Amino acid sequence: MRTAVLTTFLAGLVLSGCTAAPAWTPVGTGDVRPSALSASGDGVLVAGSSGSGPALLRLGATGPTPFELDAAEPYAAQATLVVVATGAAGVDAVGTVVGGAHGNPRWTVWDGTADPPLLTSRPQEFFTFGGHDAGPLLAILETSSGPVLLGSRTTNSGARAVLYTRSGTTWTPAPSPRELTSTTEVQLGFSAAATSGALMVIAGDELLLAGGLEQRPAVWVGSGDTWRLVDLPTAGIAGSGLSLATSVACSGGSCWLAGWVRGHPVAWRLDPSSGAAELLATLPGDPTAGNDPRALVAVVDGVPVVATNAATPSIQLGCPSGWRSLASPGPVSALAASGASVYAIAAGVLNRLDAPSC
């Protein structure tokens, strides 16, 4: 089926004088309700849903281009696309819809091309992503050997990360490495992932059960069967609340992570090759009442941009000379950078910001 998109792409920002603060500009997406973002060349992919089902749109220099979506199964035709990525082999996406007798998420996987803009769902065996131990599908990692899908599943001792690989159109879960599997002493949580060269980087947390509960933000770096855990530094951060890394973005051989530690939004830098991690900043903002905030990070021109999603949300630009606070379009559910522009989905609306230079 073809997703109809009636939209005008609003490009550019209005600046009042050379010292004026940059402003977010809403970007029209027609009948597409955006849910996920991914940089794609000189543009950005906007995934979500429309009145007729799943939807995918590419915003580029020439304006918006809607994808034709070929749903090969009933759940795919009703799905919202919640993960999207582009790689050398094409475009990959994950859709989900609640269905069935037990009201569980029904996951669908898609692949296709940007030229022509076509995405096709690929039916899988039910137990590939479903079953009594099923967990969420979190990210698509585009690697030199093809896409890898990161998810998690439950075991008798807790969660384990699962890396699915594709042969043809069939996805298969690989055995979970020991470092990515919970034990009776340490419970693991997984939030987001990115690639840095040949390495995959997974952000999350570990909860130590022995000797009292202690939660630590963590990142795992590796590929195949070889993985290592890096505990992210939190020295000097006092307070209460969850401690976890919630987002990661990589560029130029470095990775940046964002999260919350004891009631404070935090940013880190990671050298994935050596495993060295640095606490960059404890950022301003208080947690939202009755909710666990999820900080997001993107990289624009080699500089991290963090959406804190604090009670008073802000965008923080990590310049070498210090952090700059910018206005936020609201609580941000997805963040991506393309060229010198930052895109954010806030309250179901896509927004664009030309990030100021440091």
Give keywords.
four-stranded antiparallel sheet; 3% helix; 358 residues; 29 strands; Neuraminidase; 2 helices; five-stranded mixed sheet; 2 domains; mainly beta
What's this model, at a glance?
3% of the residues lie in helices and 59% in strands.
Structure, described:
This protein has 358 residues and is mainly β. It folds into 2 domains: 1-9 and 21-123, no CATH class; 130-326, Kelch-type beta propeller (Neuraminidase), CATH 2.120.10.80. The chain has 2 helices and 29 strands. The chain has helices spanning 74-78, 126-129, and strands spanning 25-27, 33-40, 43-50, 53-60, 63-66, 68-70, 80-87, 90-99, 104-114, 117-121, 134-143, 146-155, 158-167, 170-173, 186-196, 199-208, 214-223, 226-231, 243-251, 254-261, 264-271, 276-282, 296-300, 303-307, 315-319, 322-326, 332-338, 341-346, 349-354. It has a 5-stranded mixed sheet. Strands 1-29-28-27 form a 4-stranded antiparallel sheet, with no helix packed on it. The longest helix is centred in the first third of the chain and has 5 residues, at 74-78. It is globular. The model is unreliable at 1-19 (pLDDT under 50).
Topology:
Layout: E1 25-27, E2 33-40, E3 43-50, E4 53-60, E5 63-66, E6 68-70, H1 74-78, E7 80-87, E8 90-99, E9 104-114, E10 117-121, H2 126-129, E11 134-143, E12 146-155, E13 158-167, E14 170-173, E15 186-196, E16 199-208, E17 214-223, E18 226-231, E19 243-251, E20 254-261, E21 264-271, E22 276-282, E23 296-300, E24 303-307, E25 315-319, E26 322-326, E27 332-338, E28 341-346, E29 349-354
Parallel strand pairs: 6-10
Antiparallel strand pairs: 1-29, 2-3, 3-4, 4-5, 7-8, 8-9, 9-10, 11-12, 12-13, 13-14, 15-16, 16-17, 17-18, 19-20, 20-21, 21-22, 23-24, 24-25, 25-26, 27-28, 28-29
